[in-house]
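In the design runs reported in the main text, the only information available to the sequence generator was the tokenized backbone. The following block is the verbatim input for one such run; it is reproduced so that readers can re-run the procedure and compare outputs position by position.
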């Protein structure tokens, strides 16, 4: 059994799963035994958002935020441990941490989490820092989950798009495969299974997911998010503003590519609004929802997706899901619940798998996704404490 935990670019909660794997091979199916989620306190969320930009005394502030966030991760892990069946062994925790800077073009990415502290608080071996090895090999370091998506969600007869809509949205284009066959191939006879660089598995960040919508909603309604997209649904899409935002260079770039709040920030939105006529806030919200939907739909349609399965917080936004379905006529759009996996648990489940692969010393990146020079074993390991 493994625990996987993450806090995404929405910075709303730490989500975790207790996962059981039916076998030792890389393609062994994963089962969610328990799920837990704890909201990130407003003060900590505000500090994590502030750390996305340069500011005073960053080293001390980021260290204190790392401690507080790690303690929150530990609370989630300890809650999950209570759900472990008797006599079971939790092999490791995989913890993504909170991304505060992501600049792979400059050779770095930074996720706040203290692996030693988490291992100490939980008495579990802990794996963190999953992106750095891929970035060191010239890759984007993200998205990390297409290999897991391929194992968990591949269809036997059609190209399936798996879309995670968190703060940033990313897509995994998973080619069809026979039931029980692994989409990951052996690198050499007799070696452990490892992802190949096959170009048929494609994944990248499509652009903003929820983060601009959430920030705009908080600014104008005082609410952390637009529940079910009800506010956006009552607005009118501002086509000139939408087209201006879609003209951003990021949307024209070919994969591999990844992004984050370093680009798609409230300042980015303010820059576009400053060159546009005054607009009703509700219409801007509708336009931001359309920006997310259009960028996702374009990625799926251009690559011939036969169906689309959505996970992450965006799966709960019924207006956004409706817009995706409308923009992709003839393509079934549902959440991953249709495949038997809670859409809120998918990404945490992926980090349980990534921790498992690290302990097995198996590569888990896909160079066709990230652009890395080759396969890499991902993650830094902090062994569980052996003494009092």
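Verbatim output:
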């Amino acid at each position: 059994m493994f625990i996987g935990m993450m806090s995404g670019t929405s910075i709303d909660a730490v989500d975790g799963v207790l996962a059981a794997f039916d076998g030792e091979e890389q393609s062994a199916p994963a089962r969610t035994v328990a799920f837990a989620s704890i909201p990130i306190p407003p003060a900590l969320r505000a500090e994590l958002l502030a750390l996305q930009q340069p500011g005073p005394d960053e080293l001390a502030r980021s260290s204190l935020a790392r401690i507080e966030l790690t303690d929150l991760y530990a609370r989630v892990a300890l809650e999950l441990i209570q759900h472990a069946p008797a006599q079971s062994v939790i092999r490791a925790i995989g913890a993504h941490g909170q991304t505060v800077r992501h600049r792979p073009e400059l050779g770095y990415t930074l996720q706040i989490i203290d692996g030693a502290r988490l291992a100490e608080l939980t008495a579990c071996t802990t794996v963190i820092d999953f992106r750095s090895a891929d970035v060191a090999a010239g890759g984007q370091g993200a998205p990390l989950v297409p290999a897991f998506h391929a194992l968990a969600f591949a269809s036997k007869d059609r190209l399936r798009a798996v879309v995670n809509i968190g703060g940033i949205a990313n897509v995994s284009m998973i080619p069809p495969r026979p039931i029980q066959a692994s989409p990951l191939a052996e690198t050499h006879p007799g070696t452990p299974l490892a992802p190949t660089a096959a170009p048929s598995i494609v994944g990248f960040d499509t652009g903003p997911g929820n983060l601009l919508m959430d920030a705009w909603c908080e600014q104008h309604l005082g609410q952390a998010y637009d529940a079910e997209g009800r506010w956006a649904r009552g607005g009118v899409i501002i086509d000139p503003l939408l087209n201006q935002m879609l003209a951003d260079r990021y949307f024209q770039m070919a994969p591999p590519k990844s992004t984050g709040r370093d680009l798609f920030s409230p300042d980015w939105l303010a820059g576009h609004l400053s060159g546009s006529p005054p607009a009703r806030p509700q219409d801007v919200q509708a336009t931001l929802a359309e920006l997310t939907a259009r960028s996702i739909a374009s990625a799926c349609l251009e690559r011939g997706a036969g169906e689309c399965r959505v996970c992450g917080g965006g799966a709960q936004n019924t207006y956004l899901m409706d817009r995706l379905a409308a923009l992709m006529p003839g393509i079934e759009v549902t959440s991953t619940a249709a495949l038997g996996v809670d859409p809120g648990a998918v990404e945490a489940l992926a980090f349980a798998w990534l921790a498992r692969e690290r302990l097995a010393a198996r590569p888990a990146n896909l160079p066709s996704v990230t652009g890395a020079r080759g396969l890499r074993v991902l993650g830094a390991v902090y062994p569980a404490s052996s003494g009092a």
